[in-house]
Structure prediction request, 1268 residues.
Amino acid sequence: MTTKPKTSSALSQRFAGVVPPLVTPLLSDGSLDLHSLERHTHHLVEAGVHGLFALGSTGEVAYLSDEQRLQVTATIVRAAAGRVPVIAGAIDLTASRVLERALPLVDLGVDAVVSTAPLYALNDRAEIEQHFRRIARGLSVPLFAYDVPVRVPTKLAPELLVELGQEGVIVGCKDSSGDDVTFRRLIALNEAAGHPLQLFTGHEVIVDAMAFVGADGVVPGLGNVDAAGYVRLWSAAARGDWATARHEQLRLNALFEIVFTSRGRSPDAAGVGSFKAAMNLLGLIDHATMATPVEPLDDQASARVRRILAGLELLAA
Amino acid sequence: MTTKPKTSSALSQRFAGVVPPLVTPLLSDGSLDLHSLERHTHHLVEAGVHGLFALGSTGEVAYLSDEQRLQVTATIVRAAAGRVPVIAGAIDLTASRVLERALPLVDLGVDAVVSTAPLYALNDRAEIEQHFRRIARGLSVPLFAYDVPVRVPTKLAPELLVELGQEGVIVGCKDSSGDDVTFRRLIALNEAAGHPLQLFTGHEVIVDAMAFVGADGVVPGLGNVDAAGYVRLWSAAARGDWATARHEQLRLNALFEIVFTSRGRSPDAAGVGSFKAAMNLLGLIDHATMATPVEPLDDQASARVRRILAGLELLAA
Amino acid sequence: MTTKPKTSSALSQRFAGVVPPLVTPLLSDGSLDLHSLERHTHHLVEAGVHGLFALGSTGEVAYLSDEQRLQVTATIVRAAAGRVPVIAGAIDLTASRVLERALPLVDLGVDAVVSTAPLYALNDRAEIEQHFRRIARGLSVPLFAYDVPVRVPTKLAPELLVELGQEGVIVGCKDSSGDDVTFRRLIALNEAAGHPLQLFTGHEVIVDAMAFVGADGVVPGLGNVDAAGYVRLWSAAARGDWATARHEQLRLNALFEIVFTSRGRSPDAAGVGSFKAAMNLLGLIDHATMATPVEPLDDQASARVRRILAGLELLAA
Amino acid sequence: MTTKPKTSSALSQRFAGVVPPLVTPLLSDGSLDLHSLERHTHHLVEAGVHGLFALGSTGEVAYLSDEQRLQVTATIVRAAAGRVPVIAGAIDLTASRVLERALPLVDLGVDAVVSTAPLYALNDRAEIEQHFRRIARGLSVPLFAYDVPVRVPTKLAPELLVELGQEGVIVGCKDSSGDDVTFRRLIALNEAAGHPLQLFTGHEVIVDAMAFVGADGVVPGLGNVDAAGYVRLWSAAARGDWATARHEQLRLNALFEIVFTSRGRSPDAAGVGSFKAAMNLLGLIDHATMATPVEPLDDQASARVRRILAGLELLAA
Prediction:
């Protein structure tokens, strides 16, 4: 295949490629484990990731106090040391509160802020547009929209996102909507508008296909466990080597089965819990502790995680 | 009817009866109108309400910054001056953050705190139980649960609520679930457990019927517009005069039609917007301004509100 | 209380009061048990019910073939023998198919037909209005709307229902929406329009309160188990004796706990399954068999049903 | 790229590749236009499609009477004349009724039957499994599962589908769930189980990517309008020429914008309505009439469809 894929030019953008949402390591007593977080940040950068996403859902942002959010961000920014951009989630109910959360993060040096549609509030489309406009006006760094209807009452329409992109309100979107049909349309509308947005998929199991259809990057929770794999995947996709990208994706998808080891548990417990369990087994963080009130994986599920890691030769059997 | 209705004994409880969720008056520029808020607080107490609910959905809590939340609460507590208890909403994503919001409110003198199930986080029942337990452990005042599945991902099961009541974790629940069938069952389970919970309906159009089936009180958004009506309604219900209660309810329901004057607008715009428009027309607050990014009712809808008020002789025609 | 309650006049209407949705008794091999059905029909009429609802959700209408639907309806119509009106559900995807189901039922002598909003089809409000208009045009007997958003994609708006009532398209509505706030508003709009509709609640645990707010009748699944209780309840409500109505309701609600004996089972299995288990224990039907693929209650749940029946002295302990 | 893609072997299967869900042409009075249907069937086969899907959502199956379903199927089977397999939807509430619909279709010569999870009934996973088992037992031709949670209350879990495939209950699945993340996992589980299922995506805008990740075919509603495009797309994908497949997909996606010409209309009106409008403009069917109660596209929307067709040179400008 000789045509140069669009995604390679996208990589030249400042925000593109593999941007893992860092887990927030905790000590056994539930307090922040900033040493593990610092070590993990170095590990990710050295693995070749293109950016870091602090305070995302995978980072248990919902469970962290304001003070903990600052400590987490300061640690990541310091450890990253400008080698890659740091994006941070300012997750709160509405624009005025998002700005209260975001401004201290900007002071700590993050390169961009991520915000969702309003929470708890019940708004229509015009109000949601104003929500993003108000946040952007209050910020001195770029704003990303985070489309995550499983956690927020609203799915962000592609027309709305592209319109906000053309106005310069947002510079990109992380799509965790599970709706790749609409994501494909978002890519097309964005392209037709001159590519104002950098578009990231949040679905780590379909990165090859989303790169193929034109995504600018990925925010893979599973990238905490196997960052190098996602870097290889993205690199193959960027050079149009789809067979290699798919091969790497299938290996990562076999690894992703760790999130199904805790059936019956809550989504946060099963998802982030399995990432932390695997990272702990791999020595990437010191504890698998989850933020209160979520319990870590039980022994049986952890054993299943271990078997999956061993089966993929990430761990000695 | 000679049997003494259960609800009359409930009125002897500290938290019971008519507890309006105060709107948050704003000046034309969107900043807090604390003078109107103080005046409105006096007005409600003088109308005979049995408690005040600060920082509820009707109070646009989702749109207020932390600092604004404190100013609103301080104003209400000072104006109430101990004449009736003040309950305040500490609405945030999870327990640790709810406590960050709640503790300053307790310092300001509120008599109880209200919290919902987790937001944004995706938890199971055991985790939600722990969420309320952790909040209660951190508080020196009683905790109410707020069941509002239209704004929060979870409907609180009656068994969970009664269990938390029996443990002393929560002292009551405000039910805005729209599910009166389950609310009836909650009342029955609560009664069977010795009435550990004070149960408030949030549905202002069915207070007569909910009092009839055993509710301990009501949190009526429309009580901002006609507090005296709700006091009369509740008083009739408390003495078992159901015909009078129903008659008053039907009058209030004709007033409630103001929320349908803005079809097509967002729920927050149509609901709280119409309360503020009516209060402004009645001289209860100085402006009908809504919190950004919500626009107030337009002229056409305001005119419809005026006609409804005039039709009920609350306003000169 | 001297005022004459509105509900007493409603009883003079042809379709009003207690109209149980008959279960469909089955033999052990899953075929129709028409002998039990005939006996049960007589039992209900003799208990004083005001009408019979054949082929409702409680009648497992979804699971019956066209031929079985005809046999069930013929049996009920014959056994009722004109003593009370028979209403029958014509549940299918859209108007043309509803008519295919309904016309043979009309030929069998049913007094009215019940239909839901479209199923499977994805329609807007104008299309749903046309759906009911087309059904009504094809029928020689009155049409009821059945509002059951847990089974059908659409909640029927009160304005739409009253408009269809005023046009003569429908003569009433069975409300199983679980949304008593909107049902209250439906009652008010219907009253303001001159009461074109007979309004039935489908929620058997809140009949006293719904009669109090002006419902014209109830379609109680639990009425299969204790028809006499619902007749007493409704009779007390009709004469404005709310204390007696509430007392009877609370007894029936204690009986309704049978539906919670099978937690974890499907709604159809837990609900209709517990009705059939109780009816079988009470000798009202010969088998508790459920329609394929639903399994009847297991022994443990049946034992719990038996204890509830015994605790209420409906069965010897 | 030298590796032979898996999808090429899938094409050797009897059910694979491009299988359009035929619209049901109607005359101006709403009756069946069997001449247009026959002509369209020939057109599709001659365009090279690999199969035909009668009585799908796009075929307005929900709106057709039993008799109309038979006439439609007979016409398609006769016109196809064995050149490609014909699959037909037997859409009804539960297994016994699905069989009532399906058996006459089998008698007419269809090669396979498609059924959804139960409708209206409220079942759990075990009951849904039994639903499919009972249908399969009653059929002499293969059964496909149709996963369409926007029309049916249940999303079919990939584990359930693969288990039913391994048992021989179903031979494939049409996925219209909009959830490509889970579809990817279904493909992986199916592969690990030895490929018991033929897996079709119902999302016509992402066929290139779904072929890339291993889908066995596509059921494209838009294939009614441009069958040749889908055949070219699939052919390119089958030989691993992803750049060509993507190029064709992007052209088809520009065509798919016809479904957005009627914003504010119901999904059935906007979707199938735009297909029929385009087909009528292209001379593929004689009328754009929709099944009652759905109105066809209005003139303004039809003009937009015409412009899109002209812009893609499918029609003279």
